[in-house]
């Protein structure tokens, strides 16, 4: 079982309801051992989060409460890249020294204009971070009334929706049924692998958005099927080793490559690295389950842009049909070239 601290990346376009959601979450007893990194330009919304919460309301420095850090002088995806890693390291060391209350989960709330790609890459790239934290899920809020328009006009909104594990449709009370169904259709086209859920005024069962990644802590086991959301079998093969792609929307495509033969990870990892190097610019996210000959259990892999993440050994988990599969989410990505690279290995 992976003992690293799970990280939820909470993102979503400007005004889509991130702070409202975080506020409700942090008041829920199930989330009491949560550390938070908030990246807001300015401090709007913070009063709301800290009002009546068990967290101190004193805003003295960037450490606005024991387990809560505000990064307000820039954006995590561009100017504050190093600060995120430094802050995460700092929180972890303080936790080890018992200088902050023990936390067993971290939520990072980004600004509304954040490109999640560089943030995810950052989480995966830093040796200390990678060894003590693991990405649980990317949770993205989408405004029911304005989401469609924002996705069409703002590339950040599109990228946020594309890399989500969980899409939360907020403010349904402000949208017409037609707007909501058009948005849902669009989200399914952009990101068919994400779950879609409605949230009203931030009210949500925390269990709907935490531990929704690779590990299911309630059942104390890995749950890669749910994480990958690509069927293990029963797919109808299109071109060799692939299923037909979903239609392209705004240049964002999602497709799954199936590799029925077991592989050798020590060889295949160079293919993933090459894929990241060659297609990194367009590669929003890669997730996969690999059945390999040189490890005692299947491997979960993921990558963002140019950065492959070290694989996670899925100990105690196996499948009847050992078919490896890799889900690719790309923007303007050369799908055929990616398929060829993976299948011609
Ligand atoms: N009607 C309605 N309003 C909502 C709902 N959820 C959030 N809001 C309101 O929407 C506004 C924006 O919500 P925030 O939570 O601040 O959004 P945000 O994503 O944190 O905004 P930024 O930090 O600016 O990106 C606030 O006034 C909320 O009260 C909802 O379900 N229904």
Automatic annotation (TrEMBL):
| UniProt domain CobW C-terminal: residue ranges | 252-345
Kindly give the SMART domains that the UniProt entry links to this protein.
Answer: CobW_C
Q: Name one GO molecular function term.
A: nucleotide binding
Signal peptide residues are none
Q: Which InterPro entries match?
A: CobW-likC_sf, CobW-like_C, CobW/HypB/UreG_nucleotide-bd, P-loop_NTPase, Zinc-reg_GTPase_activator
Say what the protein does. Answer: Zinc chaperone that directly transfers zinc cofactor to target proteins, thereby activating them. Zinc is transferred from the CXCC motif in the GTPase domain to the zinc binding site in target proteins in a process requiring GTP hydrolysis.
Q: What is this protein called?
A: GTPase, G3E family
Q: Give the source species.
A: Methylophilus rhizosphaerae
Source taxonomy: Bacteria, Pseudomonadati, Pseudomonadota, Betaproteobacteria, Nitrosomonadales
């Amino acid at each position: 079982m992976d003992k690293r601290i799970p990280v939820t990346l909470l993102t979503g376009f400007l005004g889509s309801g991130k702070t409202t959601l975080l506020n409700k979450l942090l008041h829920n007893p199930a989330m009491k051992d949560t550390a938070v990194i908030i990246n807001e330009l300015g401090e709007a919304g913070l009063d709301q989060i800290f009002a009546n919460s068990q967290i101190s309301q004193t805003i003295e420095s960037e450490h606005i409460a024991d387990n809560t850090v505000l990064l307000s002088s820039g954006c995590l995806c561009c100017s504050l890249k190093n600060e995120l890693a430094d802050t995460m390291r700092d929180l972890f060391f303080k936790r080890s020294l018992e200088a902050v209350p023990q936390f067993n989960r971290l939520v990072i709330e980004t600004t509304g204009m954040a490109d999640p790609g560089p943030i995810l890459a950052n989480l995966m790239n830093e040796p200390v971070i990678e060894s003590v934290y693991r990405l649980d899920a990317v949770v993205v809020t989408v405004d029911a009334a304005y989401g469609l328009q924002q996705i069409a006009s703002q590339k950040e909104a599109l990228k946020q929706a594309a890399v989500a594990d969980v899409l939360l449709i907020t403010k349904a009370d402000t949208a017409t049924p037609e707007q909501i169904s058009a948005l849902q259709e669009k989200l399914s086209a952009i990101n068919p692998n994400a779950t879609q859920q409605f949230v009203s005024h931030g009210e949500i069962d925390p269990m709907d958005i935490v531990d929704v990644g690779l590990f299911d802590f309630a059942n104390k086991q890995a749950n890669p099927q749910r994480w990958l959301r690509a069927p293990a079998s029963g797919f109808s093969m299109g071109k060799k080793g692939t299923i037909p792609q979903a239609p392209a929307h705004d240049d964002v495509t999602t497709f799954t490559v199936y590799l029925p033969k077991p592989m050798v990870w020590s060889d295949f990892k160079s293919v993933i690295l090459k894929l990241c190097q060659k297609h990194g610019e367009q590669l929003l996210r890669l997730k996969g389950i690999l059945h390999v000959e040189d490890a005692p259990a299947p491997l979960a892999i993921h990558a963002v842009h140019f950065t492959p993440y070290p694989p996670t050994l899925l100990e105690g988990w196996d499948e009847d049909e050992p078919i490896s599969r890799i889900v690719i989410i790309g923007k303007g990505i050369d799908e055929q070239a990616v398929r060829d690279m993976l299948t011609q290995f």
